[in-house]
């Protein structure tokens, strides 16, 4: 075992700190790049360094954000950059996950809090099976006269009517119209959902499962991340058309009963 001397240890810490500060904190391909690291902490995991892969279950609720800059009010925007709608490799669209204005640190702490109304309620990441999505969180300085641009008011009022409404949100245009300028800090992470392969599909009848279907498809397969078999039943003829629709347009949710447990697979 080799011991590091104090100067060596300090040098190592300084180097890793500098490395974190000089690399892009925005997702690959995102313009403009910022080198400022935005602290993003979920209850179970902190996004540090930027770009780590985190379990879907750890990002269910909105994170707390932090930045070492006081007396400034910020707007946070979270996006998915990997929405796959047509099923072609070329299609990665955006999906708006969160907009929270009024973030500031009330005292000397670096944690940001807000008492302003959320503009886009936090929607948890949930890539479809077999996909890995890139999520970015950006912090913009909030102008003193900040307001939701007039042409976005009805959009945000109706945002939660359907997940579809969040797809294709243009962050650049919104930031421009709201006078937010460029991001002052950012962070990003990946979420993967394991592939669940289906090995047989057959028609059967399913009992009381919440959907109360008349006809169901029973799907037997292997959860590759578990290495074990499972049997799931997907409810009703109507749901089958949602499934084929979902494969085409990638927007609806599929409710799958696994014994009595529900797996809701949402296409984003
Ligand atoms: C914080 O900013 C406000 C408005 O710009 C200013 O009036 C105030 O003096 C600042 N406070 C501190 C502690 O810098
Ligand atoms: C977008 O799709 C391309 C493949 O067409 C892929 O290389 C790239 O990583 C995707 N970007 C994101 C942010 O998922
Ligand atoms: C979109 O999904 C298809 C399969 O459904 C996959 O082959 C393709 O790589 C995906 N594209 C992206 C950018 O993830
Ligand atoms: C700073 O503000 C936060 C949020 O209101 C609070 O939890 C924390 O205790 C405060 N810290 C100090 C040192 O006042
Ligand atoms: C609200 O969203 C729903 C679902 O996307 C859509 O059908 C409806 O037309 C929207 N309403 C308005 C007023 O935009
Ligand atoms: C946002 O809109 C601008 C201006 O129309 C366009 O150049 C850009 O490609 C759009 N970005 C996305 C992600 O759609
Ligand atoms: C597949 O396995 C993973 C890891 O054990 C688990 O988190 C997930 O819920 C499983 N999915 C199904 C459909 O059983």
UniProtKB/TrEMBL annotation:
Protein name in the entry: PEBP-like protein
Signal sequence region: 1-24
Keywords on record: Signal
InterPro entries: PEBP, PEBP-like_sf, PEBP_euk
Protein origin, superkingdom: Eukaryota
Gene Ontology MF terms in the entry: peptidase inhibitor activity; phospholipid binding
Any one Gene Ontology BP term: regulation of Ras protein signal transduction
């Amino acid at each position: 075992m080799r011991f590091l001397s104090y100067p060596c240890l300090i040098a190592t810490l300084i180097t890793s700190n500098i490395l974190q500060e000089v690399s892009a904190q925005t997702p690959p391909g995102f313009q403009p790049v910022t080198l400022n690291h935005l602290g993003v902490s979920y209850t179970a995991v902190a996004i540090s360094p930027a770009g780590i892969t985190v379990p879907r279950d750890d990002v269910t609720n909105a994170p707390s954000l932090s930045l070492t800059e006081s007396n400034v009010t910020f707007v946070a925007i979270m996006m998915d950059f990997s929405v796959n709608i047509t099923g072609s490799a070329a299609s990665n669209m955006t999906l708006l996950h969160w907009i929270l204005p009024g973030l500031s640190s009330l005292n000397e702490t670096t944690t940001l809090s807000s008492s302003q109304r959320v503009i886009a309620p936090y929607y948890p990441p949930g890539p479809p099976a077999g996909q890995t999505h890139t999520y970015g969180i950006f912090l913009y300085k909030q102008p003193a006269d900040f307001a939701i641009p007039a042409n976005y008011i009805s959009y945000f009022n109706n945002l939660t009517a359907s997940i579809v409404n969040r797809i294709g949100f243009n962050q650049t245009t919104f930031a421009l119209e709201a006078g937010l300028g460029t991001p002052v800090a950012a962070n990003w992470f990946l979420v993967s959902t394991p592939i669940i392969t289906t090995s047989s599909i057959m028609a059967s009848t399913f009992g009381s499962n919440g959907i109360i279907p008349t006809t169901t498809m029973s799907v037997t397969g292997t959860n590759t991340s578990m290495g074990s078999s499972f049997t799931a039943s997907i409810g009703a003829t109507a749901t089958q058309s949602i499934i084929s629709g979902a494969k085409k347009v990638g927007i609806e949710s599929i409710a799958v009963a696994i014994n009595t447990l529900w797996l809701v697979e949402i296409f984003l």
